[in-house]
Amino acid sequence: MSGVLEGIRVLDLTQMVAGPLCTLLLGDLGADVIKVEPPDGDSSRSIGVNRPCGESDYFLSMNRNKRSIVVDLKSPGGVEVLKALAARCDVLVENFRPGTMERLGIGYESLTASNPGLVYCGLTGFGTTGPYRDRPALDPIIQAMSGVMQLTGTPDSGPLKTGVLLSDFVPPLFGTIGVLGALYVRKQTGVGQRVDVSMLDATVFSMVPREAFYFSTGQAPERLGNAHYQMAPWNAYTTRDGRHLIVVSHTEKYWLKLLDALDLGRLAKDPRFATNRDRLENRAALDAQLGEAFAEDTLEGWTRRLSDADVLFAPVRDFDEVFTDPAVRTSIVQSVAHPTAGEVPLLRTPMKLSETPVSIRRAPPTLGQHTDEILAELSL
């Protein structure tokens, strides 16, 4: 079965993570993605190079289902090739700083003059207007500017970035949604449009519903590590064998299930823990009681006991445990044959469409691998 975007051609002028993730999603949905690279390649090709073949983990994880063509946009001839490519594409995605494409003569107005059906998606750090528009941006910069770092960590640790590239991950999701919406409208009107996504805007949006707490109280949620600013118990605890698990009791039902599993029914009658508000006010005392209880058994023992009691919990797993779990390996990991890196495990897009499934059809390309093929195919 074909992908939902079969027949759609995407021109990918992105580098690093946020932009390539957007075009990866479009490619997984069936689009033909033409990745335009400078002569020295996407800058992510030189980051995370820890394979004997010299391929970068960064690049390999973000660029399957794409064909690579080398175009030097610093040369007049390269700009003309880019214009010719854009005239034959349905979507263009770029993540240059604002104004770069216009200075090259390949901005939105210029390209849509000859291809009014083009959907043009720009992913920027701080948007196309405003005081920060010209600043460079990467994930940790946006995490700091958005307030995410201020929320992450403990009072002792100070602000921390998240362990994953949150500000590189959320913006391309909105970029992809915007492109799909624009393609849907184009089907009715024949006319494309511009889609702009700011990494800062998208990351601030990702803090929902923390902003509601701030708007209603004038205060930011405390930096509490694994605890929650509005619910308790909600924390990670250490087991007898030095492992960790996290427990969430966001309703009275799960609070009572937890007490039953821990044989701590007496705490249900303790006035310090009678309601969620009481538990929040006495969080330190509550965590001390639960910490003592969890220290009495191993992670394996608690996993069995808490599962039997239907408690809302999970062991804190390391990567070996995650990626040897058959539920994960079967559902989301797929190996593809790469021309220089050999068999490369990749993560499937976690969308399951019954009639037009997403798929990994191509390995990440080597630099310029498809230049001649694409030029011949498009009669350039």
Low-confidence region ranges: none
The structural domain count equals: 2
Number of helices: 17
What separation lies between the terminal Cα atoms?
A: 31 Å
What's the story with the biggest beta sheet?
6 strands, parallel
- Computed structural class: alpha/beta
Question: Could you walk me through the main structural features you see in this protein, from its secondary elements to its overall organization?
Answer:
There is one protein chain. By secondary structure, the chain is α/β, with parallel strands linked by helices. The longest helix is centred in the middle third of the chain and has 24 residues, at 166-189. The strands form 3 sheets. A 6-stranded parallel sheet has the order 3-2-1-4-5-6, with helices on both faces. The protein is 39% helix and 15% strand. It contains 17 helices and 11 strands. The radius of gyration is 25 Å and the shape is elongated. The chain starts with 8 loop residues before the first strand and ends with a helix. Helix 1 crosses helix 8 (166-189). The protein has 2 domains: 9-206 and 325-377, Crotonobetainyl-coa:carnitine coa-transferase, domain 1 (Rossmann fold); 234-238 and 244-315, formyl-coa transferase, domain 3 (2-Layer Sandwich). The model has no long low-confidence stretch (mean pLDDT 96). It has helices spanning 18-28, 57-62, 76-87, 100-103, 108-114, 139-146, 148-151, 166-189, 199-205, 210-217, 252-262, 276-281, 283-294, 299-308, 319-323, 326-332, 371-377; strands spanning 9-13, 32-37, 66-70, 91-94, 119-124, 194-198, 234-238, 244-248, 313-315, 333-338, 342-347.
